[in-house]
Amino acid sequence: QISLPPGGDTFVVLPGENVTIAWKLDVSISDLSLRSWTFLPKGDNSFAEIFRDRDVDKKPQYSPGPFTIKNNATLILKNVNIQYNGTYRFSIVAKGKLTKSDVTVFIA
Question: In which domain of life is the source organism classified (predicted)?
């Protein structure tokens, strides 16, 4: 139900860059009850969630720094530094089924 971004599951970027992680959803937005983004080095708490088709609920205390959620499944990490190193998990619940996809970001 989730396809990896065109860049695959690993992104290597320079400090100060913005990183766009654009997962692709293979389900209709109307079938989604939850979308969430988690930065695994900070634990299992999501730093952004969308319930049904509502607005993004941001919890910046669980993110490594500034970010934006765009469209249906895109995470943009802004002006990255070493704090952004780690694995990002995108999770969805569609028709009662949980699906997860992990992407790792390395700051070179």
Answer: Eukaryota
In this prediction, residue 96 carries a pLDDT of: 94
Sheet holding 74-77, edge to edge: 19-22, 74-77, 67-70
Give the Å distances, CA to CA, from 19 to 7, 34, 56, 58, 93: 11, 23, 19, 18, 25
**β 86-94/32-39 pair status:** antiparallel
Task: Read off the pTM.
Answer: 0.94
Q: How big is the chain by its Cα radius of gyration, in Å? A: 13
Task: Give the separation between CA 96 and CA 33, rounded to whole angstroms.
Answer: 8
Residue type, 62: Y
- What is the fold, at CATH topology level, of the domain defined by 2-107? Immunoglobulin-like (2.60.40)
Cβ-contact 107, 85 below 8 angstroms: yes
